[in-house]
Design the sequence.
């Protein structure tokens, strides 16, 4: 399974970025290889409008199985994500990436 | 001023809540006692004038903007459209192209630059224009669909409709959206005169200054109506004197007005000093243009 | 885990004139130096009139793009003007020129120009300030250029700066004066919020706007509470608003009577909690309620 997390930093100890479209980074954890990949999202962050769809587009290229984030994608972004076969877990915004992943594993995060 | 052309008055304010709707609806109703008058609500995101105008619906016309439609069979997934669109309204998601209508500015670039014509432009409903007949007063409401974000194209289309179908109505009042950004510029652009409604407080003055700057940028003559006069201080008056901006009227603060307003009632014929103020305003405007 | 301690409170109202900014500034005074203030109502930024920030640091802000023609490279073919759907490239004195007011930055002209005379450049849209307020707290605020448009990007910038400052200074609160409407800037001002305070008034449009804003908040599952300002102007509308609050499980924070103290305080460049009146206690109790809701959540 590939897990994507919206992140405000690049390591397991970074906080989850509550924002989807304007998240600082997307961090991908591959459970098979146990590797962490960091994708810098700063060029999307600089868009005046349409950050949600631009970030959604990135996820299509990364093809994660699961997304862990804070508030959850907004209107257009969730529309954009619906064709991606990916589970979305929300309300992880006061956790570090590590904590968020553990909470997800133990079934404590809310799926939308 | 060309006598064959209608007199167009725009009513604007730097921020919301100053009494722009109150003033526009009452001015239009007052004018319609003597001559045929048109009131146009261009606050397309939050049109509220209808709450105050009674009449019969004459016509409702849907308004469209043009957006690209993806033709899956022609598309080669070359990615040109997705790279072209600056608004991220057209994005390539895996093996399909998604179009997000609310982000689309109808620039046609993705469609016309597609090498295999796989994104023809089609109509998409963005709002509607309702015409209401209220005797001597014709009322036009322009309303954006919920979820649409582009106010400017609808405002332009409303102006076009007024200029083709209602050009015989000699006096026209346009209730503009609040603020100082693109929608208010689009709404006031055709006006012969802009009335800025403000209140005599520091917030009012700050927003008024910005509104005046905006209108000067598009070279419109302006006049100021001070609403809720008496609640604050005289800084707005001092500023107008200094900047040589005419004060057209001062409408005193009166709880009675607020109560009528909250119930959707007009006051132009109920409160005498309102009638007097409206008469002053229109005389001053006719004199100025 | 630092940011666990920061509570972000966003104050919103669909329409203008409800007293939102006066109330936000009051909460900012009550929170004192334990809060960082973010003014995201950049279309009609007014909070500085009450909190008297010192405009300490200024940054230029760029958002969106604008086409620029290099006249040395232009061969006057007019292709750009033909494709521009915004009529933003009029020909003046035999030269094609970009009208900045009409240009929407779509970049079509740049793509079709045969001599590559057109480039898309970042558009300056305003200034962002980091200031000290009169109560010693830090405030991040912005001013839009004339006819420039607010954007999710500007709101995100103001909020991000506020958050970074709150983290660095170990502050407990971020108080955000939210953007009007329900578009992209509002979504951006809500992202990351822990609590939303809705300010409304008992008019037909007040309730209508409240419902629209609430629909956006619900999507992000953020807890919210509502203040009905000028509640005594129309008791029937107030009752209807209260009904809506109950149905939607929105905390009813307070009913504030119509009071000229709002404008009297404003003229003295003060918030309503800096002047002795019954409203001072009322707003104080709102702040206590909000804090209670925030701690209960954790």
Sequence:
């Amino acid at each position: 399974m590939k897990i994507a997390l919206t992140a405000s930093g690049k390591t397991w100890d970074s906080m989850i970025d509550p924002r989807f479209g304007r998240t600082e980074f997307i961090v991908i954890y591959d459970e098979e290889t146990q590797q962490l990949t960091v994708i810098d999202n700063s060029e999307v962050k600089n868009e005046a409008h349409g950050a949600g769809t631009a970030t959604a587009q990135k996820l299509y290229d990364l093809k994660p199985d699961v997304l862990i984030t804070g508030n959850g994608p907004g209107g257009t972004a969730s529309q954009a994500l619906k064709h991606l076969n990916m589970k979305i877990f929300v309300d992880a915004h006061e956790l570090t990436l590590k904590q968020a992943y553990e909470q997800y594993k133990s079934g404590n995060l809310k799926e939308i | 001023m060309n006598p064959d052309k209608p007199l167009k008055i725009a009513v604007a304010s730097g921020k919301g809540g100053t009494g722009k709707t109150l003033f526009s609806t009452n001015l239009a109703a007052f004018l319609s006692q003597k001559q045929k008058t048109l009131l146009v609500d261009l606050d397309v995101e939050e049109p509220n004038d209808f709450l105050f105008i009674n009449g019969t619906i004459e016509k409702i016309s849907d308004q469209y903007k043009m957006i690209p439609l993806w033709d899956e069979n022609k598309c080669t997934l070359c990615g040109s459209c997705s790279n072209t669109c600056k608004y991220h309204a057209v994005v390539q998601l895996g093996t399909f192209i998604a179009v997000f209508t609310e982000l689309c500015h109808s620039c046609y670039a993705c469609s016309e630059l597609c090498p295999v014509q796989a994104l023809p432009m089609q109509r998409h409903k963005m709002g509607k224009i309702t015409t209401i007949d209220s005797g001597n007063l014709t009322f036009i409401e322009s309303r954006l669909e919920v979820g649409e974000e582009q106010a400017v194209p609808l405002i332009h289309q409303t102006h076009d409709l007024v200029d083709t179908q209602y050009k015989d109505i000699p006096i026209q009042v346009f209730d503009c959206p609040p603020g100082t950004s693109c929608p208010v510029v689009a709404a006031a652009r055709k006006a012969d005169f802009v009335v800025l409604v403000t209140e005599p407080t520091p917030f009012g003055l700050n927003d008024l200054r910005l509104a005046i700057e905006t209108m000067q940028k598009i070279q419109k003559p302006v006049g100021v109506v001070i609403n809720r006069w008496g609640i604050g201080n005289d800084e707005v008056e001092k500023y107008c004197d200094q900047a040589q901006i005419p004060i057209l009227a001062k409408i005193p603060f009166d709880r009675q007005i607020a109560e009528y307003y909250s119930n959707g009632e007009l006051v132009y014929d109920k409160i005498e000093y309102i009638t007097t103020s409206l008469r002053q305003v229109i005389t001053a405007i006719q004199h100025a243009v | 885990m630092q940011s666990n301690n920061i509570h972000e409170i966003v104050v919103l109202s669909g329409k203008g004139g409800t007293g939102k900014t006066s109330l936000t500034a009051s909460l900012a005074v009550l929170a004192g130096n334990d809060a960082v203030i973010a003014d995201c109502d950049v279309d009609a930024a007014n909070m500085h009139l009450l909190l008297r920030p010192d405009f300490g640091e200024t940054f230029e802000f760029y958002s969106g793009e604008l086409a620029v023609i290099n006249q040395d490279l232009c061969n006057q073919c007019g292709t750009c003007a033909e494709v521009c759907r915004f009529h933003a490239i009029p020909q003046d004195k035999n030269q094609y020129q970009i009208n900045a007011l009409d240009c929407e930055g779509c970049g079509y002209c740049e793509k079709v120009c045969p001599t590559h005379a057109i480039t898309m450049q970042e558009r300056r849209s305003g200034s962002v300030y980091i200031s000290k307020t009169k109560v010693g707290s830090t405030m991040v605020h912005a001013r839009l250029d004339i006819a420039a448009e607010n954007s999710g990007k500007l709101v995100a910038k103001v909020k991000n700066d506020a958050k970074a400052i709150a983290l660095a200074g170990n502050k407990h609160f971020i108080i955000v004066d939210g953007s009007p409407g329900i578009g992209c800037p509002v979504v951006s001002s809500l992202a990351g919020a822990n609590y939303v305070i809705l300010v409304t008034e008992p008019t037909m449009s007040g309730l209508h706007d409240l419902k629209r804003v609430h629909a956006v908040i619900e999507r992000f599952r953020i807890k919210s509470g509502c203040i009905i300002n000028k509640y005594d102007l129309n008791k029937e509308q107030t009752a209807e608003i209260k009904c809506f609050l109950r149905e939607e499980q929105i905390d009813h924070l307070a009913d504030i009577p119509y009071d000229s103290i709002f404008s009297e305080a404003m003229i003295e460049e003060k918030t309503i909690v800096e002047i002795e009146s019954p409203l001072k206690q009322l707003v104080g109790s709102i702040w206590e309620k909000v804090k209670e809701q925030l701690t209960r959540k954790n």
